[in-house]
Amino acid sequence: MKLSLRLKMIFAFSFVVIAAIAAVVLFANLDSEQQVRTYLNQGGLYGMNDLVNQLESHYADTGGLAGSETIIQNYRFRGKGRNPQSSNPNMTLVDGNRQVLWSSSGYEIGQSLGHAEMVDALIIADAKGKPVGYLVLENAVQLQSDEISPFISRMQEVVLFAGLLAAAAATLMAVLISNQLLKPVKELTRASNELSAGNFESRVKVKGNDELATLGQTFNRMAENLQVAEERKITLTADVAHELRTPIAVQKAQLEGMLDGVIPITPENLETAVLQTNVLSRLVDDLRLLAMADAGEVRFDYRETNIANLISLVNNQFQARLDAESASVVMEYDTSRLPVINTDPDRVTQILNNFMSNALRYGKKGGKIYINASVEGDCLGITVRDEGNGIPESALPHLFERFYRHEKARSRETGGTGLGLAISKKLAILMGGDIRGENDPRGGAKFTLFLPLKTDK
Predict the structure, then answer these.
(1) Alpha carbon distances (Å) from 116 to 33, 113, 136, 452
(2) Complete DSSP assignment for 35-54
(3) How far apart are CA 423 and CA 381, in angstroms?
């Protein structure tokens, strides 16, 4: 039989509480019997517990039993239950050493009593329960067992009834508490089922700040991340289709035109078709690299790399484009202060190439590109800054999103695939670093690559 979590919690709570109540009832019964025995030993058996209490009070006040014979002589015995005795029985007061202090039974003062005389003696105890004296009775009528037993039985019945009532209340509380505790679990189950069915907007209501509330908050964050991932997947699919459609359409029209004889087959027209093929090839390569980066399958070749030499190499690669656009590069760092770090120089070059391409594309025509490198804490930062108009504030949060272009009219031939920064960001993170893009207070945009100075790779 498969039990639900609710029944398991009810059984568990009920078992623990009922077991505790049963233990209390058991000990209460045992204790009540002990209390009755103590009561009888202190005079209750003969209906003289009041006298014993007075003698104990006298001892507590004076520190001894001397003078307590007056209390005994003035005590008026009335009998208990069916006890027919109406006058005081013969009594003897002895101290803790069994020496007679006073007697109406014929014992002499100072006489020591033997064990036989002390068998039914009533105990006189101090505040700590230690015997300090005894009261020996003669010719006293004891309470009968049939008078004592009903009292004990009734007291045990009351304790048992109270235990059963407490157990019933505990079971009811277990049901209510389990329902209350399982309410957020049921809510989580409902939301999880909706989420598994494709409803990524499903959320749970979080109340309080306990562990279940933390679990609810974690679920909501997970659902939000899944929703964002799903939206990105849908957007990526649409963006890929959009990016592929244009070069394919241009290439198709170009080739069909040449096949139909509308467009002459010339080197220039063939070059147009080749350019569109190059765009498609570059887009596919970028998508493949990005997919590998997302899956963590990009391989890195870590080796000791002189950063100053690497930056100079990147600058040399762009020299032709710099000259064509009348632009120049300004190195704002001390070459001797740049460390040699363990990194993948090819991936770093790929990222810096993207920075330089963006700086040339968006910087001021004929302007300068500034490159700076310095150690910042446990990272090496390499910054590329242009003198352009900077990045629109609305575009800053989206810089590293895939296919994002803040200039919608930018062509794919001159504007790239829209994946460069997304790929660069992913590669930097996989190498243990990061990328930051922002506007420089002096004007223009700047991008900084952070690389760890030490790596376990």
Answers:
(1) 26, 8, 11, 97
(2) HHHHHIIIIITTT-HHHHHH
(3) 18
Residue-wise DSSP of 72-141: HHH------TT----SPPEEEEEETTSBEEEESSSPPTTPBP-TTTTTTPEEEE-TTS-EEEEEEEESPP
Amino acid in the structure at residue 112: S
Check whether 259 has a pLDDT greater than 80: yes
The single residue listed with the structure tokens 């992913």 is 426
- Reduce the DSSP state of residue 158 to 3 states and report it: helix
CB 203 within 8 A of CB 217: no
Residue with tokens 């003698």: 55
pLDDT of residue 119: 73
The number of residues making up the chain comes to: 457
C-alpha separations of 81 from 78, 88, 145, 158, 422 in Å = 10, 16, 11, 22, 99
Percentage of the chain modeled with pLDDT above 70: 79
In the DSSP assignment, the letter for residue 339 is: P
pLDDT in tens, 266-315: 888 888 788 778 878 877 887 788 788 877 788 889 999 999 999 999 99
pLDDT for res 456 = 62
